[in-house]
Amino acid sequence: MPRKVAGHGIGLRRPYYDEVLHTSRRVDWMEITPENWLRRGGERARQLAAAAERFALVPHSVSLSIGGPDPLEDSFLDEINALCKLTDPPFWSDHLCYSSAHGIHFHDLLPLPFTREAVRHTVQRIEQVKRRVDRPFLLENATFYAFMPGAEMDEATFMTEILEQADCGMLLDVNNVYVNSVNHGFDALRFIDALPLKRVAYVHMAGHTKKQDVIIDTHIGPIIEPVWQLYAEVMKRLGPVPVMVEWDDEIPGLDAVLDEADRAREITTRVCA
Fold first, then answer.
1. Per-residue pLDDT averaged across 105-111, rounded?
2. Distance CA 205, CA 211 (A)
3. Which of 89, 112, 118, 152 is 20 to 30 A removed from 18 (C-alpha atoms)?
4. Residues 256-271: pLDDT tens digits?
């Protein structure tokens, strides 16, 4: 039976691989980026095994390219399946985007056109993923900085159509909603209310970076106050689902990351009381 994921977690990141295994502070669960652990032996394998012994681990990949034009890589999906068997998570996830085309990996998450054709294409690929990996699959709403041409619907409708037709869950990134709302000028809470919130399995929180007239989703903390306010409204709607704090660049140390997780826990406790 898959390990239970509940409460407030952080990412298993290089600067504190070993420190987090011995901390006395509360860590409810941890998220891992599979690309950092697949095909690794030696010290890296030892660290993963030690983390899996202490914490529930959830894989969150960044290179699936679920909406891309290239065929999905069966070898990658088989490795994800093997990782899921090893860590026994209740689900795994990637982003609603594309990250490769014509054999080239962009190392970025690029937006899909909000079209019916893109819905059909992505749903078919999700079905392939679900046949290959024996765990429920979640899609995360991604940030984007330009709209692909030819849109036939808005982002919330596009995501809802895919989640409903593919019958898969959602990873709701609150910071991504905030970043897109500021960059593209829409109401963040209205966007969230347009999503199928019953499908949300867990929530991401993160920081970002403001550069001139645009906000960049850098996952550099700390999380700013407007994002915390939006988070409180989200948790009122969702109830106490699992939450994970991302801090992926300019990481200041484990305690600072755990301070953010503690604040998320306090808000969840208060608004869901």
1. 85
2. 20
3. 89
4. 999 999 999 999 999 9
